[in-house]
Amino acid sequence: MTTKTTLTATTVALILPMAAFAADFDTLDGNGDGYVSMPEFQEALPGLSADAFLSADTNADGALSPEEVSAAQSEGILPPSEG
Question: Which of 33, 42, 43, 52 is most buried by its number of CB atoms within 10 A?
Fold first, then answer.
């Protein structure tokens, strides 16, 4: 196996799970309060670690705002919104 093949396989292995968990903010915000809590995040995106939530929570208030989710999606921390 060549390095190029290995990198391609690794890239695909990382991208495919992210695509499977794509979601918009309203889907992530299960209770509709305008923020995504850690339990909501874990329920909607079970394939992502708590570290992803903590990285996205830039103000460290324990909840993700629509702006934090959008920024984290732009930075590749969270999967993009559907559609």
Answer: 52
Six-digit token string for 57 = 């929570």
Measured CA to CA, the distance from residue 83 to residue 34 in angstroms comes to: 20
Task: Using CB atoms within 10 Å of the CB of residue 36, give its burial: 0 to 12 exposed, 13 to 18 middle, 19+ buried.
Answer: buried
**pLDDT averaged over the chain?**
80
Tell me the pLDDT band of 23, cut-offs 50, 70 and 90. Answer: low
Task: Please report the domains of the chain, with CATH numbers, ordered by start residue.
Answer: 3-74 (1.10.238.10)
The 3-state DSSP class for residue 64 equals strand
pTM of the model: 0.72
The token pair that represents 78 in the structure block: 């969270």
d(CA 28, CA 66): 10
